[in-house]
């Protein structure tokens, strides 16, 4: 689990460092499995940060997940 948590932090950091008004393709087509927490992280980025920073996000092979508000 520690490795997955580190990977999530790296993913979040990488996405947060994308410049405003840019584009990104997140390609998961060759992935056999993508953990739900990773999918949630991507979806949260798409719904929040990408909109705020006007980042165009194209996903391939990434299923959309419903975000659940954390308490």
- Main beta-sheet strand count, sense and barrel state: 2 strands, parallel
- Quote the average pLDDT: 89
Strand residues, percent:
5-15%
Overall radius of gyration? 12 Å
Per DSSP E runs of 2 or more residues, the count of β-strands stands at 2
* Spatial order of the strands forming the largest sheet: 1-2
Per DSSP, the total helix count is 2
What's the overall geometry?
Answer: globular
The stretches of 5 or more residues where confidence is low (pLDDT under 50) are none
- The helix/strand order is HEHE
Question: What separation lies between the terminal Cα atoms?
Answer: 22 Å
Helical/strand content category: alpha+beta
Helix coverage percent of residues?
40-55%
Give me some keywords for this one.
71 residues; two-stranded parallel sheet
Condensed summary:
The protein is of the alpha+beta class.
């Amino acid at each position: 689990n520690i490795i997955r948590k580190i990977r999530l932090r790296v993913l979040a950091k990488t996405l947060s460092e994308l410049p405003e008004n840019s584009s990104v393709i997140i390609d998961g087509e060759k992935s056999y499995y993508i953990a739900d927490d990773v999918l949630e992280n991507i979806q949260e980025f798409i719904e929040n940060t990408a909109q705020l920073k006007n980042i165009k996000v194209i996903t391939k092979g990434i299923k959309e997940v419903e975000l659940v508000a954390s308490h």
